[in-house]
User: Fold these one by one.
Assistant:
Number 1:
Amino acid sequence: FRYTVGTYFANLSFGRPFSRGPVFSLANWSATSKSRQIAGFAQIDWQFLPKATLTAGGRVQNEAVSYTFLDRQANNAFYSGHAEDTAGTYKVNLRYEFTPDLMLFGTYATGYKCQTYDLTTGFNLNRALAGPIKPERSRDREIGARTQFFDRRLTLNLTLFDTDYTNLQAQSIETLADGTQNYRLTNVGGLKTRGIELEGSARLGGDVTFGGAVTYLDAHYTDYAIAQCYPMQTLAQGCSGS
């Protein structure tokens, strides 16, 4: 029985001046952002059978973010804001070592990416009133094998993974009232990614090792309410026009 307990603290400040011109895509702004994070975490490893180990861990964190944005190109428009959030994540892993060179495992874990502000060109009153980009969450499931052969000269690792994201933070295209387009960070309702990964390495000699990896990935959005239609996409093909 083994355990780990700890705390984490970070306090970050950033400044970002930006200027672009002199003719096309004019921009002249200055932004600052701050982030303060404090967290506590714990993890245990319980070897309940000679070859079986159960690992469980959790983390609780509180993060406060704030910003200022001065747009000199828009008559020195000034915006500021702050937000705070508390979240918890956890992980459970079960592994079984059949031999010193063969181990199978299964893992279930949750993930969290904190809320943030999109401090880029095009920041305006609408973005300020909308508040921060929502936190991103994930739920991940993995099963796999870790193997070694020929006196540990050949290593092969196989992993099957399936992950669901909620409120994925991704860049999107915003069409403004004057018809121009602006790239901005926003939340995608849902994303699912799954696949299989094989990686390995072969020790060919005392000083020569060959390694490689191959992955099959199937990823698709499960919910994207504000996505734009692709060119010539019809209603029957899923274009709702919103």
Number 2:
Amino acid sequence: MKVALFATCLIDMFNSNVGKDTVELLENLGCEVSFPESQVCCGQPSYNSGYVKESKEAMKKMIKAFEDAEYVVCPSGSCAYMFHEYPHLFTGDPVWEPKAKSLADKTYELTQFIVDVLKVEDVGAKLEAKATFHTSCHMTRLLGVKEAPMKLLKNVKGLQYTELPGKHNCCGFGGTFSVKMSSISEQMVDEKVQNVEETDSEILIGADCGCLMNIGGRIDRKGKPIRVMHIAEVLNSRE
């Protein structure tokens, strides 16, 4: 099965290991992974800030970059959802609407692809640790991916999982929200860190690098002994 990796900006610039683990994980599951080098930002930051017209230029570049892909897999529920938003933004455009719909139809978040397309729930991962999982807003509420991460994590050997209190609450990142409304965002992420502490977990797992960067940054500033891991790193672990 041929898969094109949509790496996302945060992974490309700050979390390259997540990209590497994603590729290794997919290859171990029998996929042939390619990386379209013409991919850029999906346009979400500017779109969420109200710059719809300007965002469409980046969106068109992404549509072209993945036009020939059989499947597009993204280790970020938020960015994967953005591709699913494209058809609405190009509604009525005779050229770009069908292209946008084609891209949306073949785009999957990483755990969604593994469970729903590859039909795999045990990837052979092993990680001896106590952990909890942060459910990101876009991935669960908009993309609708809720069960896939849990199905995969429950089969990670050695992982002692505890559900996160207030798991449906936003971590306060929200892209540009954390910059524009920093004081509110700080209170939200402090609550999230407190909830993580209540689980007595050694590791906080998530599927969106934006959320993990926000929560992880706050954990670090508070000096808490909690490790932050993307789910791709966990699923590719053999510790």
Number 3:
Amino acid sequence: MSTDYQKAREALGTRLRELRLRAPGGRLTGTQLAERCGWHKSKVSKLENGRTTPTDDDLRMWAEGTGQPEAYDELLARLRGFESHIRSWRRQLAAGHKPVQDALNAEIARARTIRVWQGAMIVGILQTPDYARSVFTRFTELQRSPRDIEEAVASRMKRQEALYDSTKRFQIVLWEAALHALICPPSVLAAQLDRLAGVIGLTTVELGIVPLSAPLKLPPAVGFWIYDDQQVIVENWHAELRVDDNPGVDTYLRVWNTLQESAVYGTAAHRLVAAARQALPSRHQTASEVTANDNRG
């Protein structure tokens, strides 16, 4: 759980305590409020100390139970404000990329079913070390973060142990454009595509690729991960968005299901990977020579 999210939940708990202590008929004890709401007495303490996220109904009952039903709208607005919460890259990367990768490894370790959409590059858990190194180098330059590239690569490679855990299922959908994006040297992308082709046979991985020519019901947008259909992590340029409210998660599930309807799997996916590898410039061609050849064609 993010620090920002927890602070917001604690702030809401502080406000709930204020309402209990300032009840119009006199301050209420936690036990008295729990009895009015039909709860176990420990629930009041958990809500006030930010250890539990209240539901809409919890907030309504709290407002009514303290004799202040007009406070419900304010409480609900506070809840909506942190159900979808943002973790800025500036803050997360203050100590480098490795801590972020370690945190994602922990997310993967807890989850059993992981759904992924990625349209811009090969998804992290399937990356080769050299491909990951290129990605981290680019993002370190962009975010001006500490240069712990080798440590970050090692952490990302450790994550791949989860691919061989028979209790997990990875349902990954890539856009074909990700197979061609030269965010790394052609030789590195060639090895990455070889790795991707080998993943297609793993029993824990269901890899789909949406062809560039496929009709789409939705435009491909930013990449996201869905953990056990309960939490979504979305990566933008400036921040990471975490969504764990039911309506928000349901939206991303619908997006993922809609995009995967256009994907191909198995042999057809393998053909797309092979074609992308075949289209790569040779090891000895320079970028200018590739452009010149394209122009002559």
Number 4:
Amino acid sequence: MQLISGTYWYARGKDKWVRLGREFGPALVKYAGIVGAKPEVRTVQHAIAHYIEWATTRRKPIKPATLEGYKNSSKNLIPVFGHLELADIEPQHVYQYLIERGDVQANRDRSLLSATFTHARRIGAFKGDDPTKGLEYRNDESPRQRYIEDGELAVLLNAASAKLSCILNFSYLTGLRQSDVVKVKLADITAEGIRAVTNKTDAPVTIEWSDELRACVAEANRLWTRAGRIFLFESMPKGKHAKRGPGPYTTSGLRSLWRTARNKTSVKNVRLNDLRRKAGSDKETDQEAADLLTHKDTKVTRRHYRAKPKKAQPAR
């Protein structure tokens, strides 16, 4: 198996080569199928590829966002550890990696490495102790505390197109994640409110009606009018993506529209997912915020989604 210009090939001498793909895991599986052997899991690169392949094809595959994070971490880990045998990785190597990178991403990379070693033990490719365990160290992670003021939100909504403004307002009012916002269907709109099953945790929630939420949904139905429409917010791809036809927005497409609108304003250091933090911060209590954001534990809500600046009375 050879890697040429970012693509893996099965080299067969003078015979025609077989293209295996650009992702190492699927390419390894295809290679094994051709030569009639089980995929080799010996090095860290083999183990990471095998784990990701397994995680995406099991009965309940990992979430797309998790998979994207794994792929980002694998790009960091493989140049450092990929060529090493699983048994050759020791705790001091992982500790040194965390120290030298010194960022939050290193913590994410360690998590993938840990999951990989657990998987390797399950399939019998590794029998030692997990070198990622027991380090009692992780790089500091300070929660993002950017709170969008009401005036800033008004500026952002005004800079967006009518359709994007409607989606952004809906995102704020419901506190839903981007991946959940784009998947809301007309069938999810009930007499009680908006029904949703969150993509990340599979937690069901019904967001009850308010006057503003009713007005936002009514605006969506005014802006998107195609007969046979399924989703509340419907994308009509153009150009090279036109073959997809009408359907939900992709999260990457939504973020692209957001960046274009945001860059027209003077609002600084603001991200699309800060709308979710504003939603949690604007609720009266931690419990109300946790209920809206479908958090089981209010500790997560307080740490990451309660960022509204506190007010205090002067001494006199």
